[in-house]
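Readers of this paper often ask what the protein records in our data store actually look like. Below, we set out a record of this kind in full and without editing:
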Amino acid sequence: MSAPDQRAPVRRDRLVARRVPFDAIPREAWDRLLAVTACATPFSRWTFHRAWWDGYGESAHEDYLICFPAGGRGALDPASIVAIVPLMHRHEVEPDDSILRTAIRHAPRLAPTPIPDRAKAVFFAASYHADYATLLCDRAGLPDVAAAVVETLASGPDPSHGPDDWDVVDLRRLRADDPALPALEAAFRAAADRYGWAVTREQEDVCPVLRVDTDDWDTYLNTLTTKDRHEIRRKVRRAEAAGPVEFEDVAAPASAVDEFIAIHQARWGADGLFPETPGGERSRHFFRRLAELEGPGGALRLGRLRAAGRTIFMCVGFHQRDTVYYYNAGSDPDARALSPGVVGVAHYLRHGLAAGYRVFDFLRGNEPYKYSWGAVDEPIYRLIVTRGADR
């Protein structure tokens, strides 16, 4: 009798994972699972994924998985779906990335594991612009879901995307406290010997996060270093001396998104998100679509700071429960004497504290300005699975 094929996927009877297009996933199931996901952030919202594919759909291929019990009522019955795994695939570096500005940024200071540019990679969906990623699933179901994901990835390529299988699974943006991270790592390591895979977990970047236990602005400022506290107060006073300073949380973000795009681009030019290039047009479409989908009262918020009746700063963020996620900003370069960046963030934080927010997440990157507000690094991780040389 011949030996069994050690590369054949091991059958699991409890859960089945099926590849589906994003549009085929019932919104009802998405929102239900988002509500029970341990480390869900605004980047896991249906609106963010819908806007991302509308803006950047030509830069990757959808590879979403839905998980449901074997023998259930049907894969696309909303009540039967127990998990959604948002994935996509593409080459690690596409030839037009420099033109379309779609490369996935990482922190070179952490010496990330090198992956060949032409490797076909499986990423979390929307990884270019999502600062966090996870599986949509309740905590108790994560081990079974992770095992179903591994089985599906071991079963060969999706025929609708051609005969070439993946070279690397490159799952980024996983928070240190996300239970999806150890569940996925354990499932991949359990299958590694069977399939000839190598599994690596490494820190990808940091997200500086400010945690505050007061709604009083002066009490918060007193937690900062003397130098930072004095600088913030000095710059706020100087701006106020030039005329009335007013901060507004824009009620309908779609009404102000083009104003944000304009002031962001005035500040950052060719280095910003919205240059006059094909990539810049994709970014403009993404932001406009996201603002439209979130609508008034949604997670996406725009802040506007006016000094003496003139807009000098705008920022975009996401608000969820007790947390503000500070996503991007722009300022009027002609108002640099008023320190619009510092004064704008000061008013954004002060407004958030008064509204009851206690966590201010500055998201990926160790830019020095984040630490002047008292933010402390929180790591995010990357899980890398590569095939053996005998492939």
User: Anything to note?
Assistant: The first strand starts at residue 15 and ends at 20.
